[in-house]
Amino acid sequence: MKKSTFKVIIAGAGLGGLCLAQGLAKAGIEFEVFERDATSTSRSQGFRIQINPDGNRALHACLPSRLYTEYVATCGRLDEGLTFATEDLRELLSLRWPADPPDVVDAYRSASRSILRRVLLDGIGDRVHFNKRFVRYEKDAAGKITAYFDDGSSVTGDLLVGADGVNSGVRKQFLPNADAVDTGVLGIGARMPLSEPVKRLLGEKPLSSSTLILGRGGRGMWISRQIFNQAGEGDFAGDTEDYAYWGLMARREDYGFKADPAKMDGKSLRDHVLGMIRDWHPRIHEFIGYSDTETASLWPMRSGKVIDPWPAAGITLIGDAIHSMPPTGGVGGNTALRDAQNLSEELAAASRGEKALADAVAEYERAMFVYGFDTMRESLRLLGNATSHNPARLAFTKAFFRTVNRFPPLKKQIFMKS
Predict the structure, then answer these.
(1) Which of 256, 295, 383, 413 is the most buried (most CB within 10 A)?
(2) Where are the domains of the chain?
(3) Antiparallel, parallel or unpaired: β 210-215 and 219-226
(4) Homologous superfamily of the 7-76+112-180+304-384 domain (CATH)
(5) 182-300+388-415 matches 7-76+112-180+304-384 in CATH topology
(6) Does residue 45 register a pLDDT over 80?
């Protein structure tokens, strides 16, 4: 088989784009990454991310062994599982993550987003260009793609990958009817140090594990903690503070804002949430009272659209650029990593001459259309359950969870498939 040479342009240096870049570097494929942020540290990377077996397998496949070992060494300790509960802290469903998976590559892990980004940048930094906002692309008669950036520069390659997030500029030009949509749900959340009083509040069930509260009146809340028990070494040390956090989810109209929420400070956002859940369990109120209000923020929840497959075009999309989803499923980042693994493996096969480049991209897209949109639909379903005003829907969800909770084999079959 004759090897094929081609160049990949990646727009976006988030987790998915960098994981793809590492996979391409491992396969010896030429690539360049272009990121709109001014530097790799110009903005916060947010809370830590739970890496599920899909994400962990992707990192294992794409990273060189040295970096995968570094990634594992810098991961923290997960909560023991996930619990669904009512606003008066009655357990509905309790899931427990496997303590010792048969294959450690299939493990669940808790990763610092900022450290993971540094790991993903290691060894490829000379091919990642910051302060490069994608503007548009052109395709010539020979099929070559030229990407243009807002500083007047450009780059030409054989494949353009939009890994540039929910507001993807690549998607806007390539699939203008596939823009992400507003779900109508807003999130407000904050974090606090894992002090002894906070540990006490989270020490009893159901809050002893990550908890999703399904409250009446369309109010849902996520409560969790991040325990960082391994600090790593060298360039990957840091971000070792243990903390807990919460996030309220409700439809925009249910917040009843009298002022522009975008102009409210952290204390005002926290106090507004406390007023919205005044009839919830006192332990939740006390917990939220410990919030570091400097970390409180508000964000709209958006979602991608299920669209029809597109014809081969020398352009493809990964992660939030094509199947953005609300955080209720906890799988958005992991699905982006899965995209990166699958696309890099298909491109590696094309590089070896086993298939044409267009066929490799099409094969990636065929698989992604199934699992990507399935996870998006499931995240939207969970968001709907958590913010539903329909008493019958909420009652059904609670009854379903309680029933499944009584039968461990059924629970494993439904909820622990990955």
Answers:
(1) 383
(2) 7-76+112-180+304-384, 182-300+388-415
(3) antiparallel
(4) FAD/NAD(P)-binding domain (3.50.50.60)
(5) yes
(6) no
Q: For 277-284, what is the mean pLDDT?
A: 96
HSE-CB for 324 with a 13 A CA cutoff: 21
The answer to whether the beta carbons of residues 170 and 160 sit under 8 Å apart is yes
In one-letter notation, the amino acid at residue 32 is E
CB atoms within 10 A of CB 124: 17
The sign of the dihedral angle between the CA atoms of 259, 269, 40, 301 is negative
162-186 pLDDT, tens per residue?
999 999 999 999 999 999 999 999 9
Q: How far apart are CA 337 and CA 27, in angstroms?
A: 17
Contacts of 71 (CB under 8 A, 6+ apart): 59, 63, 111, 116, 119
Q: Which CATH architecture has domain 182-300+388-415?
A: 3-Layer(bba) Sandwich (3.50)
Global pTM value: 0.91
